[in-house]
Amino acid sequence: MSGRLLGQDAAVLGAAGVEVGTLRDIEQWAFRSVSRPAGARVVDAHCHLGVDRDGHALSADDLVADLDAAGIAAAVAFPADEPGPGGDFSQANQRVLDAAAAHADRIIPFCRVDPAVGAERAMDRAHAGGARGLKLHPVAQRFAPESDACVHAVRHAADLGWPVLFHAGFGARPLGPAFAALLEQVPTARVILAHGGRGDHRSLAAVAARYPHVVFDTSIAALPDLATIPPERVVFGSDRPYGDHAQALHLVGAAARVAGWDEVALRGVLGGNLMRLLGDGGAA
Amino acid sequence: MSTADGLRVVTLAAQAEMALVRRDQVAGPLLAQAARAADGTPAGRLLREASAMVRGAPEREAVRQAALSLCRMALQDAHAQVLGAAS
Ligand SMILES: [Zn+2]
Question: Which end of chain B has the smaller Cβ count within 10 Å, N or C?
């Protein structure tokens, strides 16, 4: 039995007076709420490693323990919001690459950059170290998706053959026109809009419909958003450590029932769509 | 459960979710209200548990995050209910 529970240390929860047994039953119920197609390889598209400025933290070993507990094969991981002294995330990116090297078949490393701070160099360095994609956070790093610096970073990612995962929730700015302007300039970009595009879902869904390589991840997403877009545009994600795998899998199970996803659709959502986006079509 | 009953749970659970995210003390009362509104459904069990956890150790970060997980699952269930799929 895992020492982890809902992404937390079970002993810490127990010491706080929580009914650990009840919680474990609930977690198992949530894991079972997705009927996984036989042989489906589940891959999480959205995890952060390191210590965020806001205190949220996750180590590589804890992430792998969480994946084991939830029956998840692998996870995309990128740094938390820790740009470091130079502001270019170089140390945090290196830590993610080291984690991926230590857990080669479990962690798929993405790098994180600030488009305004040596982004191309940071991406090249991460690429040489084995990174498979880029994470950008317009709210945390305070840039507009359609800004020149961001367009450059996305174009460079496309040149490297990388998908780009964008934080796309919880900000004040309208996101539809911003991503429309970005995609107009880099129409071949493979883009993952996090949180189901919760920050401006209706508008983003209309934009995404025009670009076949734009998908939404399910991390901390809203069910009505996920259930109303084609399942081939949906990739499973948790946003560890902001979210945990129980709620993440439970959301996919609920969306599958509401939207009537069949086995093929569910296999894609749980991992196949992401692996295709990573240029790894046969692997899932 | 009627659509009105479902929407009541959606509203309260969504408010509780944001209160938990913002570390706002109002999360406790909102979870208790949501649990009562969802009584007899799967979401009710999740919200009852989250409410008890937050009442017992409101300042513990691990408890807040675990309660947030339960609250979000309850919201997902309530959304599914309103959208017409029992879970
Ligand atoms: Zn995230």
Answer: N
CB atoms within 10 A of CB A84: 14
Considering chain A, what is the average pLDDT of its residues?
A: 95
* Distances, alpha carbon A109 to alpha carbons A4, A16, A75, A272, B13, in Å: 23, 34, 8, 17, 34
Cβ atoms A257, A248 nearer than 8 A: no
Inter-axis angle of helices B61-83 and A245-259, to 10 degrees?
A: 0
Spans in chain B with pLDDT lower than 70: 85-87
Which of B76, B77, B83, B87 is the best mutation test for A, with the most CBs of A within 10 A? B76
Assigned token pair, A90: 């170089």
Distance CA B19, CA B28 (A): 9
> What span, in angstroms and rounded, lies between the C-alpha atoms of A256 and A262?
8
ipTM field:
0.95
Per-residue pLDDT band for A283 (boundaries 50, 70, 90) equals: very low
The answer to whether A32 contacts chain B (CB < 8 Å) is: no
Backbone dihedral region for residue A51 (phi beyond 0: left; psi -120 to 50: alpha; all else: beta): beta
**Range 7-46 of B in CB contact (< 8 A) with A:** 45-46
How far away is chain A from the Cα of B38, in angstroms, using its nearest Cα? 16
